[in-house]
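Lay summary

Proteins are chains of building blocks that fold into shapes. Our project writes down both the chain and a compact code for its shape. Here are two examples, one after the other.
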Amino acid sequence: MLYSMIRGIARFLLIILNGTTLIKNKQNLPDPKENVGYILISPHRSWLDPIYLALAASPKQFCFMAKKELFKNPALRWLITSMNAFPVDRENPGPSAIKIPVTHLKEGKLGLVIFPSGSRHTSEAKEGAAMIARLAKVPIIPCVYQGPFSFKDLLKRKKTKVNFGTPIYITTKEEQSNFSQSINVIFDVLDAELR
């Protein structure tokens, strides 16, 4: 309930500040009427991209991995916990970094938004998303966000775009390893489709 309310407020504010978002290939997402979990993965370019990705894929609700430092501020902790975020220690991720999203995805009520690089400051993909997809037996949907990177850019009404790729299923450890090597090529193709 709170997730839906916050999502509605965010959508309203972003439309006022920056206009509507161009969403391409939304048909690649599983039918929202089905109770199916899936993972959205994207390059992490801005603090805005998780918001725009979750809005573009609605009505599905998502959980989010977030660095543990974000949970130190009580107000921010309340907000992001309300949006189904859970803390992850990026230096020493424990078993919960895999167990929590796998549990949510198997239940099907929530999807997962994850950035395979783990940070806005690198593009090197890690295997976490592919491992979670393999264990939960859910598809990965690669996607890209293009648009404002900061609040200041939002006010300039820079056009925002989201493009969803075709679902990818990871069934073996070999596919899991290969996926992290090829995902940046997929992101490049999705970016090129928006230009």
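And here is the second example, written the same way.
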Amino acid sequence: MLLCYLDESGDEQPLRTRTDPPVLVIGGLIVDSSRAQALVWDFLQLKKQFNPILNREETKLSEVIAFEMKGA
């Protein structure tokens, strides 16, 4: 079975200023279900790598899962 992960960034609102980027991006990733668990664990490791607070010994798995990393 294939699984599809979708995400969006930006918005569809009209431009508010001349410098606002008119962008709405929708991305998807299709993964075979037999590989999904490894993908999730690798993603959690990336979150820990890029946010050292999540990489402490006392950090619980639920905290790593719940933490949202937003771009700028």
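What can we say about the second shape? The CA atoms of residues 32 and 67 lie 25 Å apart.
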